[in-house]
Write a structure and sequence with these properties.
The chain has about 120 residues and is of the alpha+beta class. It has helices spanning about 25-35, 55-60, 70-80, 85-95, 105-110; strands at about 1-10, 15-20, 45-50. The protein has a three-stranded antiparallel β-sheet with strand order 2-1-3. Helix 2 (about 55-60) crosses helix 4 (about 85-95). The protein starts with a strand and ends in a 9-residue tail after the last helix.
Length: about 120
């Protein structure tokens, strides 16, 4: 599980903020976005992510959040949520040793796969 804060800036320069716990169902994500009165995903900016796994948090802080889609972040959270504790630690080591160049690569790259032990 990871906590995510979304900051929404609409065309009238009004700002809204909402917190989400990921992974979440797609309908839940849209509901949270609707609460901020976002017109589109382009209005949403991820302002903070906390996973509780230090290496993963460092990797996420190194990503340009303005280019991250909340649904990709949700897929990343699902991947982490499906791992055992030992697998999460190994995944964190891989993120630090060979950081992927994007969140998509961290989610889908075969180089980032962790073997269950």
């Amino acid at each position: 599980m990871m906590d995510v804060n979304l900051c929404v800036m609409d065309r009238a320069a009004r700002q809204g903020k909402v917190s989400i716990r990921l992974p979440a169902e797609k309908n839940t994500l849209w509901q949270k976005l609707w609460e901020t009165k976002a017109k589109s995903l382009d209005d949403c900016h991820i302002s903070d992510v906390e996973t509780g796994i230090a290496a993963v948090d460092r990797f996420l802080r190194g990503i340009d959040f303005y280019r991250v889609d909340i649904f990709e972040l949700n897929a990343f959270a699902r991947k982490l949520d499906g791992m055992r504790e030992r697998e999460k630690q190994e995944y964190g080591r891989r993120l630090e040793q060979e950081p992927p160049n994007s969140l998509k690569a961290a989610i889908y790259s075969t180089k980032m796969e962790v073997q269950a032990t």
